[in-house]
Specification:
By secondary structure, this protein is mainly α. About 65% of the residues lie in helices and about 0% in strands.
């Protein structure tokens, strides 16, 4: 894998992890089992991303592939319980390339490449993840009026 895109599987996994956690929070107790599964999936993606970024290569490639399949299934399973379809699509858009890049990655970190190429790769990957993550996370927010109360900054509201 090129030095510039070596960090992308980890960054994509973190983005997918955030979306899995958000989907789990969004569905809440509508399905406690699905909520816990989504939260655990997100935690696993965070951990895998940390280990992979730290070792400068995608680790546990078969586990990453199994995690990607599980992540797609869990994300899609959240929709009937109120999960955002847009967040599910963004999750899939992050998980699938992460698994593909991880599966074809180098066994060892490369010492080749220019010193700046890794930094450019991290920034580029971060921009890609942020471009998907921001709008997708906004669709998982539960409006305040759906909680049964209205939040207002006006101290005289409700009088």
């Amino acid at each position: 894998m090129r030095t510039m895109s070596r960090s992308w599987p980890a960054l994509f996994a973190w983005g997918a992890g955030l979306l899995h956690v958000a989907l789990g929070a969004e569905i809440g107790v509508a399905s406690a089992v699905a909520m816990v599964a989504l939260l655990l999936q997100g935690a696993g993606e965070f951990a895998w991303g940390i280990v992979s970024l730290r070792s400068e290569r995608a680790v546990a490639r078969r586990t990453a592939l199994a995690g990607a399949i599980t992540g797609v299934v869990l994300a899609a399973a959240s929709v009937p319980f109120g999960g955002s379809p847009f967040a599910v699509a963004a999750t899939i858009a992050l998980v699938v390339p992460a698994a593909m890049l991880a599966s074809r990655g180098d066994a060892r970190p490369s010492t080749r490449g220019r010193p700046w190429s890794r930094a450019v790769g991290v920034v580029t990957g971060g921009v890609i993840v942020a471009g998907l993550l921001g709008p997708a996370l906004s669709t998982t927010a539960v409006p305040h009026h759906e909680h049964g109360h209205v939040v207002s900054l006006d101290p005289h509201a409700g009088h």
